[in-house]
Amino acid sequence: MTAPVARILSCAAAVLMTAGLTACTSYYEIPIETPIRPKLDTSAFQRVLVAGFISGGSEDVDGNLETTRLLRSQLRTKSELRVIDTDVLPLMDAAVEDRPVADAPPATDPATGAPVIREDADLEHYEHLFADVDYWKRIGEEYQQPLIVTGTVMFAPQARSGIVQRDQEVYDSFGRRRVVPVRTYMERKGFVLKPRFIFIDGRTGTILHTENYREEILYNANQTSPALSSYFELMDRLIPSFLSTLSSQRIKGTRILLQ
């Protein structure tokens, strides 16, 4: 037997053995859960107070009230901490009363004189409140020293235009269909949501942890979507990350085993 023939037969035998092994192999899909430890140690607390938020951007959605309600609802079902039910704290009023003398006055509504928040820069006039240890310590004493969740919520409309790539169906002269990418100029509008969650120790009034998020959603210019439904759609995207800050979460997946 010549060397080339021997090599060919050897290769053929290896292919047949591999094919037979593959045919006899069984695949098992095993469900697994991977635990993720929380970012913040909450073992010292039994209760949580979602105190409220300083919010602005859109007049169609009360970011303070809606965010407080949503987070309390999520924490009731997905956290071991007991949620304190109480009225939303008037954080805007507290921040205005406690405003440093040297600070520039915040923007106000010309008709009513009430403070308004239209842009991110407007929030800077109120953020000193979150560093007011005495204020938050008093709140903690009033509610039996819980973990306090507060912060800022900016939910605002936005518009954007530019070149967008989308798939388009085309047919050739024989009626065969194929999909090709097409670049077109498009005007879109939607909303952007930028919450900042601040976790405060109700025993000491000090900040324990801060989380910043940004989510946006855009629609075609001729498509309309209620602001409130867009707000909830954006919040749905970041709620899992918020919950993972306070309690352990489990990511479900699968693993393939061969036998």
Structural description of this entry:
It is a single chain. This protein is an alpha/beta fold. It has a single domain (23-156, 192-258), classed as Rossmann fold. It contains six helices and nine strands, in the order αβββαβαααββββαβ. The protein has helices at residues 3-24, 63-78, 91-97, 120-123, 133-142, 227-246, and strands at residues 27-36, 47-50, 54-57, 82-83, 147-171, 177-201, 207-212, 215-220, 249-258. The strands form two sheets. Strands 2, 3, 4, 5, 6, 7 and 8 form a seven-stranded mixed β-sheet that branches. Strands 1-9 form a two-stranded antiparallel sheet. The longest helix is centred in the N-terminal third of the chain and has 22 residues, at 3-24. 22% of the residues are buried.
A few lines on this structure:
By secondary structure, the chain is an alpha/beta fold. It is built from six helices and nine strands. About 2% of the residues have low confidence.
Low-confidence stretches: 18-22
Question: What is the CATH architecture term?
Answer: 3-Layer(aba) Sandwich
Most strands sheet: 7 strands, mixed
What's the CATH class label?
Alpha Beta
Report the C-alpha radius of gyration, rounded.
28 Å
Mean pLDDT: 82
N→C terminal distance: 38 Å
Attribute tags:
259 residues, alpha/beta, Rossmann fold, seven-stranded mixed β-sheet, 6 helices, 9 strands, 31% helix, flat
Summarize the helices and strands and which ones pair or pack:
Elements (H helix, E strand, L loop, with lengths): L2 H22 L2 E10 L10 E4 L3 E4 L5 H16 L3 E2 L7 H7 L22 H4 L9 H10 L4 E25 L5 E25 L5 E6 L2 E6 L6 H20 L2 E10 L1
Parallel strand pairs: 2-4, 2-5, 3-5
Antiparallel strand pairs: 1-9, 5-6, 6-7, 6-8
